[in-house]
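new request in #modeling-help
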Amino acid sequence: MSEYMLETRELGISFGGLKAAQDVNLKIKKNALYGLIGPNGAGKTTVFNLLTGVYKPTTGTFYLDGENLTGKSAIEINKRGIARTFQNIRLFSNMSVIDNVLVGMGNQSHCNLFESIFRLPRYWKTEKELRAKARELLRVFGLDEERRTVASNLPYGKQRKLEIARALATNPKLLLLDEPAAGMNPQETAELMETICFVRDHFDMTILLIEHDMSLVSGICDELTVLNFGTTLATGPVAEVLSNPEVVKAYLGD
Amino acid sequence: MNTLINGLCLGGIYALIALGYTMVYGIAKMLNFAHGDIIMVGAYTIFSTLALMGHPIPAVIVAVVVCTVLGLLTERVAYRPLRGASPLAVLITAIGVSYLLQSIAQLIYGSKSQSVSMGNLGSVTLFNNVSVSISSILTLGLCLIIMVALTLFVKKTKVGCAMLAVSEDRAAAQLMGINVNGIITLTFAIGSALAAFASTFYLMQIPSVTPTLGSMPGIKAFTAAVIGGIGSIPGAMIGGILLGVIEKFALSVPVLAPYTTAIEFGLLIVILLFRPTGLLGKKRREKV
Amino acid sequence: MNAQQKLPAEKKKIKLKHYINYLLILALLIPFSITGLAGNIKGSTSLLLTQIAYSMILAVSLNLVVGFLGELSLGHAGFMCVGAYLGGYFANQMHAVIGSKLVVLILSALVGGLMAALFGLLIGLPTLRLKGDYLAIVTLAFGEIVRTVFMNQEIFGGALGLDTQKYGKTLYIAALVFAIVTVFVAQNLMRSKHGRAIQAIRDNEIAARAMGVNITYYKLAVFVIAAFFAGIAGVIYAHNTTPVDYGFFSFNYSIEILVMVVLGGMGNITGSLLAATVLTFINVKLTTQLSGDLAALKFLLYALILILMVMWNNAPKLAGLRAKVNFRNLVLWIKQTVFRLTHKTPEGGEEPPTNAAWDKIPTKIEMDAVLSTDLKPDRSFEADKPQAPTKGDKQ
């Protein structure tokens, strides 16, 4: 397979005349923790939307583990192994915690409508397997106790965790985290950093994350790409990028 | 020719009702299902005041006042508590309000149709010996005037500007110091006042009133608003007139006449298939 | 972290909630079929039970669309109309060929259901990408179109309606069995991978798509299944009432079904069954007794149910009250009261048992309470100060 888990080549999209993202070149190694930063409106979430099939790129291509996924539908991309969380939490708020995770696991059950309605043996078998897997996943995130709680009743920090668990439930190769520390206090952020590193090691995951919290980025990321006005400003190892005068200028002004 | 004029007339009424729908939908982001029934209330008000006073002008004024107050009342009591709830909940409540008004009207006035005479204004003969009733001309003329006035109001005045802002982004409008609740209330007031005018014109065309008078025209006018592109004032006009003309033409052809409703709603489905936001509607993308 | 640590296994007990729906219908079916098969049932009772049965089918199937999928369909009566006309017509043809009425009923139910499902597919395929209010209005339009078209077909009796052969007094038994089948399918569907996907679409379509849920497929599937059962309800109607009258399937009837769903609770099958029973009973026993314009009271009732139920369940300001006053807490309160009454312990007695699992669940309200107490100034601090005179005390 490929050396890189994710590789984008000149990836870009324009809405009318506005180039929300252009010439984005990311090369993310397997098992890496890669950060995507930039001022507000720099096009970070747009890149996520391109990678998950919400938008179709107008230019460029991207490859997951050597496989070209450009222009594929969101469902297809999810199946091939890209999962994400959202900037503003998007849980299935009226469903229980375990059901949230089970929705993510839907792609691992091949039980069709008919089998489910008539409760054929395969239904029982897959249901049992999925439930066991889901509980294992919830336990890792410390959510097993609350598996029957309705998701919207969870405290904020746990909702964020549940979103990560749900994304992992789809059994991805690449996990995209969109501002996972948004709205968290320093202690929660520290806990979250542990969780993210744990996810990478425990699930052998490649993670691409968007973040504004520099302590988190410099604390756990291996490499960074800085976006500004839709274009790449700098890319490389964390320390190098953060000391780049261009980057400092973009963040702090002249 | 007569069919066309009748169609334009009916279309004008539809357009007026559709304007009410479209304004409320554009600004409060809800389908006010009870809008048609406000027309019905307007018609009964005219019926009652006409019986008391005997002259149509005060009756129309009273109807405008009653409808406006009723519009404000429903907004305050039924819709405002649900602001921020799911659109499904609001829509179901609006259906409930519609039923409420219909059943109350039936309890008060009975389900039999009552005849209302707005007075015969006579008719004029135009070129080609086509005779057109003055009420038709009045209907069309006033509809056009109201629409132009409304467009100018939204485009040129400060309040109209605030309305546009609220429809664009409610939270941002609030941050800019716009009284969002006030604007929504005002929208309901305008929509309901338009409904009162619509009931006046309706009675000029069909001089009888029943508790369910508003529901069919209401649904058709909403269809017109959707066809034209909901939230757009010219869209409502175009949709309304298109629907009115089609209805009258379909009714005038014996083979098509029984299918009139089916044709109108079929048109809605076809237009939504090709232009999901209606003829003049703007496309909105949900932000991820 | 101890990876070897065993997870507490899910309890393997038979849960009442899995069977309550069947028990509800059986509670109607068993006693009345004993009397019915013995021939001791009144015609009016049989009629009422049949009406209850098809109302149940309609309410449960509409609940799939509205409560579970979260889309408003205002054309459910339209699918019922398709089933009634096409199933009824098919039954008319079959009566000449097949002697057994039951076989004809079952066959025509299948045909009527499938035809309605086909209509559901045809109308759903192009329109389900529309959202919310648009879909509502399109389904409404569909219902009206169907009605007008059937009304104008001479083959179906035109404006007089379609003459059908009545099944007879024991129709309600078959109808209730169909209701059980409906519950079976609805319940099993919703308690599966597919049901979770459907509810995920309702809760957050964007997130559902990102989780690999095929939105179009599920929306269409729910729509078609709901239409299928509405069609079956229509066939039952056609075997119960003659002539099949297009006027019955108006927008008002679609709303009536919606009232059942809203009263019973969105996404609550048991609720739909209960609401269908109660409302049909009220409808038949009370409102048909009301003469003339007092019949409007029925619609007044519907209106109030719609407005008050939705307001109670959705108004943001009532969230606090909802968290306190709900079924779970009512059960808990009853338990505690019963405990107090049965265990008359003197002062300092043991605490009444509380539902431990329920107490652990942090509700939003508790969170709010915690936050707001943190923000309040420390009361003990103020207690030392002399009481400042309030404005009202000025002399």
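bot summary: The radius of gyration of chain C is 26 Å.
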